[in-house]
């Protein structure tokens, strides 16, 4: 007699993503795992007296989304900060700051998330003088949308104990023509300031941030996050919080500690290391390391934050420990650096089935792709970047028309045989796999576009493979975890231009509904 299910989902379109790419009418679940998939009649045989039935009226079920690159705790903390994403002029930005300060007591921190000077009419950030005028008694920290530069005022410098002598020795402190500090911090200076500010967040606020981020993920249909925490741009306190609290969280959280301290990660009992260990910066801040100069500033090719020897030594030590490694490398010059380190480590200490990763890899070239394929390097990309900045947008401005056509070469990556996985880089762009799928399918360069199924795999089975979890997650097959995302529309049938508008109906983890749109 067949085993009866705890839950039967029927009258659906189930995109299984199994090896045969079967489409079924439903799925049955027992003890948090998938029993079987099939048509309605087959599923009826598993209905018992205690079985719950969920009829979906033709809605689409896909494997639970996996976001492969999230700064999870920072995403939640942004809910505690001011969100200046949409401001389009310095005047309105400064007026809003002024109004917030009027209701804040002297000394209270004003933290701003995700301002974007490229969206401002003036095409520049506010100066320290402008910030001091609106906030003489309150410290201000404004984080640029890409996290690779920030703005602070004089009160923040005072509280952070950044004296003039210390500033002189920090690379990346911007000065005006008179040699005065403008408040704009890039490169090393940005990392120093960010870390000081992040370390000042209380544990109570961090726990609140974790709850915020969890809610955002569940509403987006996400069941697993690859959480990039700690390191030079964040706080290691976030790693400690996640490791203490992850079992209480409904999400599956895969922690990457963003540090080059291999001993620390070994002591924490983690099997992987890295994330945004930043080999270079970003295109927006003109700090991504390029082989050729920026089109809109011929004086720079960006920045490299580690020497080849430093990155070689780190990779070799972690590789010998059997760890999975990943680093942030956006520009082709930075990608070259990490590839050399991976090749050297694998040549000297060969390992079977290594799945080292590169995060972002936005300007990877074909020769580098061939080398990635030879040593099984996974490319962890963010297709929302193409949606927000692709083509003639920020990429075109920074890189020029020809190079902008070579960014995020998803078709080339798949054709090369490399594993391609998708993430959001939240808090840089929203945790929203459907927007990522939209970005990959509607790539600014039509030659690099993916099919909907290929794009869906970036956020499901491919993402699971990237952390050795393909036997547990990523497809809807018997024995796997019952992690499912229910969509209101059929992503295989609607027009590609509408993918970003598809709504998540339910998020199911271990067979339990943790988000339902009607209860939102």
Explain this structure to me?
One of its GO terms (molecular function) is hydrolase activity, acting on carbon-nitrogen (but not peptide) bonds. This is Amidohydrolase 3. The chain is α/β, with parallel strands linked by helices and 520 residues long. It has 3 domains: 1-58 and 475-520, Urease, subunit C, domain 1 (Roll); 83-199, Diaminopimelate Epimerase, Chain A, domain 1, CATH 3.10.310.70; 275-414 and 434-450, TIM Barrel (Alpha-Beta Barrel). Helices cover 33% and strands 22% of the residues. The chain contains 20 helices and 24 strands. Strands 3-2-7-22-23-24 form a 6-stranded mixed β-sheet, covered by helices on one side. Strands 9-10-11-12-14-13 form a 6-stranded mixed β-sheet, with helices on both faces. Strands 17-18-19-20-21 form a 5-stranded parallel β-sheet. It starts with 6 loop residues before the first strand and ends with a strand.
What descriptors fit this protein?
520 residues; alpha/beta; Urease, subunit C, domain 1; Diaminopimelate Epimerase, Chain A, domain 1; TIM Barrel; 3 domains; 6-stranded mixed β-sheet; YtcJ-like
Summarize the model shown.
The chain has 520 residues and is α/β, with parallel strands linked by helices. 33% of the residues lie in helices and 22% in strands.
Mean pLDDT: 94
Coarse shape = globular
Distance between the termini: 40 Å
Report low-confidence residues grouped into runs of 5 or more.
none
Give the strand order, joined by hyphens, for the main sheet: 3-2-7-22-23-24
Helix content: 25-40%
CATH C-level category of the largest domain:
Alpha Beta
CATH topology of the largest domain: TIM Barrel
| Number of distinct helices | 20
Structural class determined from secondary elements? alpha/beta
CATH homologous superfamily of the largest domain - what is it?
Metal-dependent hydrolases
In the CATH hierarchy, the architecture of the largest domain is Alpha-Beta Barrel
Q: Rounded to an integer, what's the Rg over CA atoms?
A: 23 Å
- Content of β-strand: 15-25%
State the major sheet. Answer: 6 strands, mixed
The count of DSSP E runs of length 2 or more, i.e. the number of strands, is 24
- Structurally, the number of domains stands at 3
Keywords: Hydrolase
GO molecular function: hydrolase activity, acting on carbon-nitrogen (but not peptide) bonds
Protein name: Amidohydrolase 3
Organism: Natranaerobius thermophilus (strain ATCC BAA-1301 / DSM 18059 / JW/NM-WN-LF)
């Amino acid at each position: 007699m067949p085993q009866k299910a705890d839950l039967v989902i029927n009258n659906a379109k189930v995109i299984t993503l199994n090896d045969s790419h079967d489409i079924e009418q439903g799925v049955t679940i027992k003890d948090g795992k998938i029993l079987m998939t099939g048509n309605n009649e087959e599923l009826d045989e598993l209905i018992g007296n205690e079985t719950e039935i969920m009829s979906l009226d033709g809605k689409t079920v896909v494997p639970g989304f996996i976001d492969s690159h999230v700064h999870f705790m920072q995403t939640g903390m942004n809910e505690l900060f001011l969100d200046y994403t949409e401001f389009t002029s310095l005047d309105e930005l400064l007026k809003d700051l002024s109004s917030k300060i009027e209701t804040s007591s002297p000394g209270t921190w004003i933290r701003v998330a995700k301002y974007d000077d490229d969206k401002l009419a003036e095409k520049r950030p506010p100066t320290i003088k402008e910030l001091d005028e609106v906030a003489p008694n309150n410290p201000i920290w404004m984080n640029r949308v890409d996290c690779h530069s920030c703005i602070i005022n004089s009160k923040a410098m005072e509280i952070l104990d950044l004296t003039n002598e210390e500033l002189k020795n920090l690379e990346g402190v911007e000065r005006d023509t008179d040699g005065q500090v403008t408040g704009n911090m890039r490169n090393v200076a940005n990392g120093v300031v960010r870390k000081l500010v992040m370390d000042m967040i209380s544990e109570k606020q961090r726990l609140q941030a974790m709850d915020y981020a969890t809610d955002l993920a569940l509403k987006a249909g996400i069941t697993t996050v690859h959480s990039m925490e700690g390191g030079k741009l964040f706080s290691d306190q976030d790693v400690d919080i996640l490791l203490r609290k992850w079992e209480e969280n409904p999400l599956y959280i895969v922690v990457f500690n963003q540090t080059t301290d291999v001993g620390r990660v070994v002591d924490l009992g983690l099997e992987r290391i890295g994330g945004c260990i930043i080999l270079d910066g970003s295109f927006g801040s003109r700090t991504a390391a390029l082989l050729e100069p920026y089109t809109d500033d011929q004086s720079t090719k960006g920045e490299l934050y580690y020497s080849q020897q430093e990155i070689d030594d780190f990779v070799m030590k972690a590789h010998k420990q059997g760890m999975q490694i990943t680093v942030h490398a956006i520009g082709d010059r930075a990608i070259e650096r990490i590839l050399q380190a991976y090749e050297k480590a694998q040549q000297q200490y060969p390992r079977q089935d290594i799945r080292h990763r590169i995060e972002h890899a936005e300007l990877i070239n074909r020769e580098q792709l061939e080398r990635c394929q030879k040593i099984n390097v996974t490319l962890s990309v963010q297709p929302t970047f193409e949606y927000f900045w692709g083509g003639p947008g920020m990429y075109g401005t920074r890189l020029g028309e020809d190079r902008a056509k070579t960014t995020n070469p998803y078709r080339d990556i798949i054709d090369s045989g490399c594993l391609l996985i998708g993430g959001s880089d939240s808090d840089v762009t929203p945790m929203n796999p459907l927007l990522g799928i939209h970005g990959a399918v509607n790539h600014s360069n039509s030659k690099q576009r993916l099919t909907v199924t290929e794009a869906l795999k970036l956020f499901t089975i491919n993402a699971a493979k990237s952390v050795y979890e393909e036997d547990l997650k990523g497809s809807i097959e018997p024995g796997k975890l019952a992690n499912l995302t229910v969509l209101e529309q059929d992503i295989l049938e609607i027009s590609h231009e509408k993918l970003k508008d598809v709504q998540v109906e339910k998020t199911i983890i271990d067979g339990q509904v943790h988000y339902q749109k009607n209860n939102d």
